Amino acid sequence: MSENTISNENKMNISEKKNIIRISKTNSMYPYFNKATYNKSEVKTESESDYDSDSESTSYSTSSDEEDKEELEEESEKELIEDKKPSEEKESNDKNNMESMLEKLIYITTSLNNKLNELDKTVNTKFNELETRIIKIESKITIPTVNNECIEDLKELVKEKININKDIAMKALTYRDYRSILTLFRLYYKNENNERNIYPIRSVGTRKFEYYANKKWNSDLYGSYSMETIINNFQDLFIKYNCIDEIGYDNFIQNQDFIQKLDNDKIRKSIFKTIVEEIRD
Question: Residue 6: pLDDT above 70?
Answer without folding.
Answer: no
